[in-house]
Structure prediction request, 1645 residues.
Amino acid sequence: MSSVKVAVRVRPFNNREIGRQAKCVISMKDKTTAIQHPKQSKDVKAFNFDYSYWSHTNEQDPNFAGQSKVYQDIGEEMLQHAFEGYNVCIFAYGQTGAGKSYTMMGKPEPRDQQGIIPQLCEELFDKIKTQESKDLQFSVEVSYMEIYCERVRDLLNPKNKGNLRVREHPLLGPYVEDLSKLAVTSFNEINTLMDEGNKARTVAATNMNETSSRSHAVFTVVFTQRRHDEMTDLSTEKVAKISLVDLAGSERANATGAKGDRLKEGANINKSLTTLGKVIHALAESSQSGSKKRKKSDFIPYRDSVLTWLLRENLGGNSKTAMIAALSPADINYEETLSTLRYADRAKQIVCKAVVNEDPNARLIRELKEEVMRLKELLKSEGLADLVESPASPSDGGQRIMTPRNEDAMEQLRASEKLIAELNETWEEKLKKTELVKQEREAALAELGVALDGTGTTIGVCSPKNTPHLVNLNEDPLMSECLLYYIKPGIMKVGSTHADIILSGPHIRDHHCTFESREKNGEIIVTVTPEKSATIFVNGKTVEGPLLLKTGHRVILGKNHVFRFNHPEQARQEREKTPSTETPGTVEAQLGEPVDWTFAQMELLEKQGIDMKLEMEKRLLAMEEQYRREKEEADQLLEQQRLDYESKLQALQSQVERASLLSGCTTPEYSTDDEQGESEPSWTEKEYQLAQWAFIKWRYHQFTSLRDDLWGNAIFLKEANAISVELKKKVQFQFVLLTDTMYSPLPPDLMPPDVASDQPYPRTIVAVEVHDLKNGATHYWTLDKLRQRLELMREMYDSTAEMTTTSAADCPVESLTGGDPFYDRFPWFRLVGRAFVYLSNLLYPVGIVHRVAVVSEKGDVRGWLRVAVQHVTDDDAPDCTGGVCQTGTARIAFNQEELQKKIDAENEAEANIPSGEELRIVEGQDDEEASEASAAAAAAAAAGGDGQKTPAEEEGEEEDSWVQFMKEHPHLKLGTTFTFRVTLLQASGIPPEYADVFCQFNFLHRHDEAFSTEPLKNTGKGPPLGFYHVQNISVVVTKSFIEYIRSQPLVFEVFGHYQQHPLHMQAKEEVIMQRRMPRTFPQSLPLAKPVPSPRHGRVPTTPNLNMTHCSYDLLGWWEICELGPSGEYIAAVVDHSDEKPCQGVFMLHQGIQRRIRVTLVHEPGQDVVWKGVKEVVIGRIRNKLEVKGPDGEVSALSLNICSQGYLYPPHDLRVFYQFEAAWDSSLHNSKLLNRVTPYREKVYMTVSAYIELDNCAQPACITKDLCLTIHSRDARLSQPRSLRSLFGSGYYRSPDSNRVSSVYELSLKHSSPEGSPGVQRRRRRVLDTSTTYVRGEENLAGWRPRGDSLIFEHQWELEKLTRLEQVERVRHLLLLREKMGIVSGEEGKEIRWILGEGDDDTVDRQITLLDKCLKLWSMEPLQLYVEAFLLTNLMKDTDVDDDDDDDPAGMIRSVSTPVLSSTLVENSPQHSPAKSPVPPPPLGAADSEGPLPEGVAVPVLPPLPPDSTDDNPDYQALYIPAVEEIRVSPVVSRKGYLNFLEEKTSGWIKRWVVVRRPYVYMYNNEKDPVERGLINLATAQVEYSEDQQAMLKTPNTFSVCTKHRGFLLQTLGDKDVHDWLYAINPLLAGTIRSKLARRAAYLRI
Prediction:
């Protein structure tokens, strides 16, 4: 008795496990194998086996176990047992892909890769050669079978194609009936059989193993030893049965991905392996129970599976058994590996009872003979003696009735006799039988056309000898006769699917034809029968019914598959009939040429009546005729063009000659007079002053030069940033504009050298802002300094490869000392901001405590200062209590000449302006305002007359005014000492990032003499910083001092220690300086450029800088319509689910006719009259948002216009113009439009419509980017559902939502002559280097240098600084007025010396201007607008006196804000075209029908100018249309429902409103994705009146009036009114809140 030897072997990782980055969970030490849980490292399970083979590594590992090691331990032992006469069994178990087949079979080459079976067989024959003698003979028999899906197949006999039956004999046990047992005499023979069997074995690919064994393979070697004893003359035999089993691997369907047949195979494999596990478990338990009485539970289920039934003797019977468990080391196979280990551990407990098999044949023959005799006696007793005598063919077997018992006995008798015959076979008979089987196999293969050599190896394919077949013919000779289709007996179907012969092609039907092979008169005939409407040709003729085929026939199936039919028997008979002296009767000999593909095609054309040569000649003649005709047309066209060019050249030459003659006739006297007339204009002195002011103004108007500097130096800025990124310098460079103002004076190093000292306007320069992110500092460089530093940066970049590179963090000293070109020195204290305190209260002995704002250079308020300024007399004692720090008295001298030069330089611009209304020119002011100011100044100059005074008179009046001033201000006598005190009290609101804060102040002209305080700790919390610094200043009174305190301020500068300084002990590592965000909204998609027209070329897209006549807001609706089943074009579905960059995605079907439908909606006007659509162009087909590459006319497709015209919807007085164009997407020849769009991909295209308008010189171009996806033709498309559509009734079902919208601004600009200097100057082109590529630009992550937007942002900053300066001055004047207690009667007298200098007329003018400002501030805004508007219209008919103070709008008690009120008058329609279709009349026109709601203001249009009416027939206005697409702002100010009451309507309409400034968008409801209307707030007037609400009895209402109509809006609640007003017009909302607050305060009083 011996137990089963168990060995485990772990393999290396396979590709699948390496790809999934698996980890090894198997470890081995000696005979112990341990497995670790992949998720619980402490969970380790250990098992002990007879052998543990570590094959996970390579041969260099000392613990590595190769194939030879496994065979030495297991194979050699089992072979020795076989020589001793024991039955031997070795089987491999494990999951699929674990290496079982490799362990058992291995690889044929190299030899060290061979498995157990080849090595065992080879050593077997080696031992036989060494031990064989005269008395000892050996014989070896081999059988090879597989168990596939519980069915047994013979792998060595091709005739046994069916499934073999498994039987069980009482003596032999289970065996396979009719299983081939082949005798072999050498290892080569057994190796050949093994190779043939492996080829026939069933394997398939799964996710875990490409060559997975799908069956259990049993390789059996019957080893017989015959020994003859000469003394006793007896022969004894030992028979050993060696069973080598390669089990199929256990698998899981989800891991292997098994489907269909693979899933069925896996189920059967797991069934047999499960049964094997049950058998092993039962045997293990029975082995442990020992000699105890067996129970019913000890039953061993051998018969549950064919595998266990055949291996019954090997598992628990007469056999020496060894098991090899193959393991996977990967953690992803942990469960399967653990199951295999438990399986092997259980098998180790099985005990087998092996015995030596001595003389089995003699004993078996005797027992079988006794069994045969017993069965014959049984049959004779049943009266079946005749069957016993001749069992194969009984005489009355058909009439005799056999009982089941008799049938079983008869079957057992036949089986026993067959076994006796096999046992009695001699060795020679067995060899003959093996040779016969080999010949039958070779004959079967030869019948199939497979040729074998003498050793049985396949050498090629040849023509079958008996079977009819089809041979392919191909146009390529190398591809001909490579395919053979055997026509087997019976019916064979040919078709594209579910056929015996499967062909593919456009003309092959599913069931094309059938070939029928049957035997007739001892001869095999083949008939072809086509199916209905199938194309078949035989020998060039069409086959319509059954046709008998003969060898050599040419068969064409469809139009591409050409075959030759071969019948070997018919060919053999024809050769026999042909005499030997004649040529053999082959088809080639009969036809005289080889039968190939060309022959078959020519035969087909000839039989079908097509002459190829004649056809080719006809085609050639036709092409020659076409070439001749086209050549003649081209020659004629070329000749015509030559004549046209010659005529044009002659015309131009004649014009040049006439011009030269005219120039020669011009007399010099005429030109001299003309020049003299032009050089001596008759201008007055004031006109000269006005021209001088205009020249100075435009001389320093430097927008163009700033833009040139930005564009020209952008390339240097990009290069500096690129080098900084590559060298890992934490420095960023960006353009910045700096202006020399009071709040932001330019340092001397930034002041350009060409700036004149007497420049009247502040100079603006382009500088470079350097953000030192490492040190938290900011520097400013000039452009010259940037170029100089860039040279050093380039040298540093080039030398980085030769020196050790260190980052800025490693070299802090370099960045502090300025040795690095990227860094600059920076001071310890940094400027926080500046403040200005005016001293005009010193003109009166009045002390004032100022609270002034500390403003940074960017115009941001960074804190507040409290400063006291007062006159000091001799009696005032110094105050040193309460923490007040008083210094000594400082003496300041005011030089009259120095101060006067500075004041004159600052006021030169105002001095040059003619007398009249004061003009304040700020750089960046609109041209219209400047022109109005110039006109006002000119009018004032003209009205002033010639009443000018002489210098002597002016000097005398000035002396008198000074004498009068001294009398009124005795404390400011000239030559006396005047002392005043400046007390710096507190500073509040200083940002906490400035630690130590101090303040210094000085006079404007004395920068070197500054008074400073001590630094104070600033934490940003607690009470304000208390400086309490007192400074007395003593001055000798002069005229310059009096002028200074009357108009000039003291400058206060606040400094602080920036805590992010690198030497600061609390400094952080890095500070990221946040850049000010631009004042424009971000765009999700760049504005689409027009697609060039293939017919009319490219429309000019350069901005037109001419004057704008009028502008309109256009709302465009874009639809793509598809032809529906009803024959009508239906709008395609649009996906509005997400925030799409194109406002929606069109979902189109493939292969359906389409149309592009565009609807333009705008307010009615007399200037916009659409004549017709000139062209619609589609281009730029792409799958990305960005457009790459230049446009070409070849890529653009012009569409045919189907319809166009005006629409007249009911209850809507807007203008609706709609047109449709047919679109055939296949003409683009784009694969994006010709295929179904893949998932998550979009297709983008650009559509441009060129539309003609009346009185316009060129068409208007409206462009839109559309996004779409192409779906299959039969796809059912619907609008995707989103979360917001889950609540309430979805609006997406409305067909009006299947469109996308866009907003445009249409401007009609005046045309100007091409050659005018203004046009040429505006068209000046400057080289823009911002788009030029520099090295390393790709590392900037989308960074771009600032451009034109920087100029507009800077203008806003300058405007803010100017307003802050004016506010501080006005605050000082109001505070002084309140402190002095000035009554209204004394106001003009006291304030004269405070406002400014100059003569009495100038001061009176300033006082009058101040009165007007105060009056304007106190009046209602709507009252101002109506008053100005009515006065403008009434002045034409009646003379209105200037002194008339009557309020024509006094009864109006509403609050309103006119937004761009001048635009309402200037941009209103001026004329109506004479010959053009007129759209519906505009709202608000004088002849509008129907009453208007009360309280709705409708602006009355001013009358037409007389030159532009129909009375002047010569007048013809031609405008240039400019269309600009307006992107919808992503910022939503407010959204919600509002009730609308429009003009000419009687009921309220509830609409969903979204405020995205500067537009208000209107929708039908909350779920409506398409804009239905819009209001432009930039040209609208918002009004709110409580009296109007009371009169109309409509609470919570306000009105919005545009240029064309008015709306009365009502909120749904009381609290929403101010919120909506703040979203629409914040200034109006603030005014209303201020009035309500004052009213509430008045009521409390």
